[in-house]
Amino acid sequence: MADRTAAHLDLLGIGIGPFNLSLAALADREPGLRALFCDRRPQFSWHPGMLVDGARMQVPFLADLVSLVDPTNPWSFLNYLRAHDRLFPFYFAERFQLPRREYDHYCRWAAESLASCEFDTEVREVRWSDGAFTATLRGTGGERRVRARNLVLGVGTEPARPVAFAALAGQPAVFHSGQYLERRGSLAGARDITVVGSGQSGAEVFLDLLRTREGDGTRLRWLTRTRALAPMEYSKLGLEHFTPDYTRYFHALPAPVRDRLVAEQWQLHKAASAETLAEIHDLLYERTIGRPIGSVAAEITPGTEVVEALPGPCGGFELRCRHRDSGADRVLRTDAVVLATGYRAARPPALEPLAELIDWDEQGRFRVDLDHRVATAPELTGGLYVQNAELHTHGVGTPDLGLGAHRAAVILNALTGRTVHRLPARTAWTSFAPVVPTAPAVPAALPAQGAASPDRPRGVDRAPSARR
Fold this sequence. Notes:
Radius of gyration: 27 Å
Number of strands: 21
Oligomer: single chain
Helix content: 10-25%
Shape: globular
């Protein structure tokens, strides 16, 4: 059992999102392992701005904190259902994907129950001294210091805002989809609303606005640079890109190839689900029965990039857009913008005292080995690990919840120096690297009467002559 009061820790985790929570859950069963996970928020909260009614996970419920590594672990989703007397309702629901709100509640249950998780506690700074990480923590009881042999960063990602919207920073009617639920009420007076971004968040925001703004005269617009509203790749073999096998293959590729692949593989991890796209189409279809298609005040325009966004001369905003195929430019006027433009890796300020000891790559990113350990200067002998900050080294599975438990187990095995969890050697039918055939061995010819020739060693023959 982890000891959250220990001043000398085996493991200090910064941030308690699903990935560090998975590590906390797996580490909880290790006797004698001293671990502490800190988060400055008052309680666990997973993308609260996108917990809209009806929103479902894009991964099966087995992608919980522990099941794909240790299905007997008490912090599994099935055990959560048992603790809340929901096993039979879940059984009869016959849904593999959970409501997003239920996944959030499940993680909160685990976070509030695990002794190693501490909220309302900010890690202010981390230094390396005398063979250990020294961290300053600030919580409700004031400041204190802890020392740890290993550090795991699980601070998650931060909302990404396109450069084109820099002039609208601070505008209350222009906000990221991560704030959608808390800011949705501020859209009440808007009569023209634009959603930018074609991923799952963009699709869910557009669908929710279609449902809630019906018949009030509001015009809704959905813009995306992507040339097509193609659904997330969800074929069984396609999903094998989210296996440890693909992670190992991707990690072995040259860095320029990895960067190219991440950009090309958007449909594996940035697209919307086919189910959500179908709901949008069904809703629009129902509303146009007996009416022209164009009678619905909704516009869906792929292949369109916002190159500049400015305050409008008469209020609202002007979006200067360019159609990527035709090159045509146009100016759109709108009252509000929801930016469903994704997230990017965050670097916690607490890490700045270690910056000179970290071996950054040419683009200022972590160099991360296959065990998710960051490359550091030789004098930093402790383990510095990252979760969801290694898309450039480990591929599209990095932010995927389905690989969360496996990555946590890899880190736990690495920092303990032993096999805490046995992990499978093969997890995919697909062979991602070229299969090089092995040439069959050619048996050596025996010399006459079993004797070796004087000019060559035993077992080696001259080249055979051609048949005549």
